[in-house]
Amino acid sequence: MTTGKMKSLHSQALPPKPRNLFPVWLSLTLVVLWLIVRDLDISFETLAYGIDDMAEYFSRYGRPDFSHLPRYLQLMGITLATAFWGTVFAVVVAFLLAPFAARNFTPNRLSYRLARETLNLIRAMPDLLLAMIFVATLGLGPMSGALALGLHTAGFLGKFFAESLERIDQGVCEGVASTGANFPQMVMYAGWPSILRESLGYTLYILDRNVRMASVLGMVGAGGIGLELIDTLHLFNYGQSSALILVILATILIIDYSSAWLRKRLT
Q1: What are the residues whose beta carbons fall under 8 Å from the beta carbon of 124, sequence distance 6 or more?
Q2: Residue 243, domain CATH
Q3: What is the span of the domain harbouring residue 209?
Q4: Is 8 a member of any domain?
Q5: Which pLDDT tens digit goes with each residue over 204-256?
Q6: CA angle, residues 168, 170, 176, in degrees to nearest 5
Q7: How far is CA 116 from CA 90, 108, 228, in A?
Q8: Which terminal residue of the chain has fewer beta carbons within 10 Å of its beta carbon, N or C?
Q9: Is residue 11 a part of any domain in this protein?
Q10: 29: left (phi > 0), else alpha (psi -120 to 50), else beta?
Q11: Domain tally, the chain
């Protein structure tokens, strides 16, 4: 390298030193913490007094009673069936509504708005509230839980599917449209094949989520292990309650790791 070029490089101004933003982030963090304490009316004195009470309460769960383990596993199977069929119901509803909620596939603006608002409505209804409604109208049992989970999560899956359909390369759609394909053919030959792997990943995520929620919905009468758990809590049978909680946690961990492994295989 010549001397002139070296002098030219040395003469060039160095980039400015990055600013130290630590005080800014620290200040923002303190402001957020202050807002949390103020808005939630948190009393640190009350928390300090309650530590002993919380420790004593949780100590009651220290001796799990697995004497009825076969029954617990049977109830967990009902909960898993509730989550599975709720997910199947959600997939069917989302499969039907998503193409109408995607701008590049919907036949007209009216169908687009109707599909979008339907997905927004069912997504806005909490599955716990839906379970209480279905239990009141259909009676106790896993069917109420499956319908509540399916209807609520159909809103999420439909939104995920619709947004995935909107990201499809326009050339794929134009190629299928050039053959004279109608709306159902466009969806089946240009839409779903292009987002199949992505849709399977979303579905596994919803199944994972529904397994967790199915246990909670059982507490409002939707059947499964949640109903048994709330009964043991009402009877202050902490040994059986602890065993039921451990069965739920073990199942959720297995489902979580299995779905994470499958999602990695799909991506």
Answers
A1: 155
A2: 1.10.3720.10
A3: 69-266
A4: no
A5: 889 988 988 988 888 787 778 888 888 898 888 999 999 999 999 998 888 88
A6: 95
A7: 15, 12, 38
A8: N
A9: no
A10: alpha
A11: 1
